[in-house]
Amino acid sequence: MPRIPASIGLPDTARYRPYSVAEAIEHYDERLRSGSDVLYRPIATGFRFLDQVFGGGLRIEDLVVYGGKANVGKTIKGLQIVCQSAELDPSVLGIYVCYEHSIVTLLQRVLCQASVQDPDAPVVQGVTRNAIEAAVQACYARVRTPAQRRALDMGAILERVPGAEVAWWRLERFMDRVWLIHGDSLETTLEHLHHYVTLAKGQGFRRIVLIVDYVQRMPLNPLLMQAGLSSLQQIDLLMRGLKGLAMSEEISVGGVVAADEQGVRQDRVHLENLWGPSTMQYEPDAGVVLNKDGLTHASGAIAIRESIEKNRNGQSDIEARHWLHGAHYHLSPTGQPVAEEESFQLERQGLRRDAARPGVLGAGPQIAFLSLLALSQWREDNGVVLDLLRQASRAEDGGQSLWPDMLSLMEKAVATAPP
Known about the structure:
The chain is α/β, with parallel strands linked by helices. It has 18 helices and ten strands. Strands 1, 2, 3, 4, 5, 6, 7, 8, 9 and 10 form a ten-stranded mixed β-sheet that branches. Strand 6 and strand 7 (302-311) form a beta hairpin. Helix 4 crosses helix 8. The longest helix is centred in the middle third of the chain and has 19 residues, at 231-249.
């Protein structure tokens, strides 16, 4: 395409310049020759069900949201994805930006996750946070002088924690390729995330998985914060910004998101219950929702239902069951597929139909008026009217197809009404 003249008002850069199909092919050829196409190889998360449904794993330029109520393992899921993807592929850098936990807390969780043996079993062995903290106190009780305390390190702590050698052995594979970042809910904006990615690329990383925990706590640019935007408008801009980050930086971006007020009150939540405007549903390329399954093992492990409720790269509305080991901050990686007849997606489909259905008393005021009028003026056979009302309330069209019967009843009511 020709250069964009200044009179058009668009910057003459690759970001704004239109591409003909022929030029797009040339651009792709250049990527192939430069080796950039390696970026398009999916990044395995280590969660086998998720990777299978996503066609091999996470893709660059994609935004994935991980939602659910409190204490269902959203942060565990995100942190595990970052660590497992880096462990499985030495070319991957995982970046975890957390607005809820300190670096020390995140590190303790990583240690616990990495220590788990036989990770798909309902009963596992591994390090717990309590064991780490007890080892710290034991070390403090042993040292006598400030010089001795200055000699303490992670190795001295882990020597006192059973099973810690497994965690350390695994951490050595990826500890330099997972970045833990404590996000400040007043200062760490979307622009800072761009800077972190720039820093990573400056160190030679190209295959990057960045997860934000959680999205609704991210602050906007201070100038935008002065615009008096509502919380929903702010979340809208954040979602658009994260998708833009994924596309412009050619990385995979994930966002841990909370349920809205209605979702918190429900037994289960779905993609439509995540806190935010409609952008929360249509902006992500994939939506993963976690719910408690209702099963608890004697070991204390809780069954968690993972629902793929949106997926632009494959099948959606399918689920798998994982064991959540809270003491080890760990979700079993394989996941057992849930039969369609047991799926929470049946409930979701019903809720979506109800939301789309006009309803006899909702979006059908004429029908409601006629029905109530018939009931108030014609008492000879109210059972027929009530039966029609029940049919209308269940009808996909809100009762529009029952107009002829209702009009007939209305005519009879008027004809028999006292003068």
